[in-house]
């Protein structure tokens, strides 16, 4: 996931910075429920993915920030420590948005693929 962060922190002195963040995870499990619908178009039956619910189990992640200036190295260390030491809290905040984005993408891709094939072409052994 690539995103942009925008910090406006006021501890003893204000710290404001905006930049890219690159988050990578390799250990994710998903439980998926989906509803497929059959429609008749021009006398032929077609299938499409109507709705889908996904529950991601994200075990952890690696975050890299686009901070390359030596003046920002301390900020990079503070951000990395905060995000790194609070991974479960960060995951619980971002998980619903990630799940929603994944569902939208899968539905779009799936329906763009299956719209070219009839139900019989996709499932020749079923009636």
Automatic annotation (TrEMBL):
<dbReference type="GO" id="GO:0005615">
    <property type="term" value="C:extracellular space"/>
</dbReference>
<dbReference type="InterPro" id="IPR010562">
    <property type="entry name" value="Haemolymph_juvenile_hormone-bd"/>
</dbReference>
<protein>
    <recommendedName>
        <fullName>Protein takeout</fullName>
    </recommendedName>
</protein>
<dbReference type="InterPro" id="IPR038606">
    <property type="entry name" value="To_sf"/>
</dbReference>
<dbReference type="Pfam" id="PF06585">
    <property type="entry name" value="JHBP"/>
</dbReference>
């Amino acid at each position: 996931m690539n995103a942009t962060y925008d910090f406006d922190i006021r501890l003893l002195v204000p710290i404001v910075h905006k930049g890219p963040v690159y988050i990578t995870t390799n250990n994710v499990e998903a439980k998926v429920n989906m509803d497929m619908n059959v429609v008749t178009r021009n006398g032929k039956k077609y299938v499409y993915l109507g709705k889908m619910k996904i529950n991601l189990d994200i075990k952890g992640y690696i975050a890299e920030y686009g901070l390359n200036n030596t003046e920002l190295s301390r900020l990079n260390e503070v951000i990395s420590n905060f995000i790194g030491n609070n991974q479960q809290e960060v995951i619980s905040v971002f998980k619903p948005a990630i799940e929603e984005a994944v569902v939208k993408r899968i539905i779009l891709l799936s329906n763009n693929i299956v719209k070219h094939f009839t139900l019989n072409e996709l499932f020749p052994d079923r009636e």
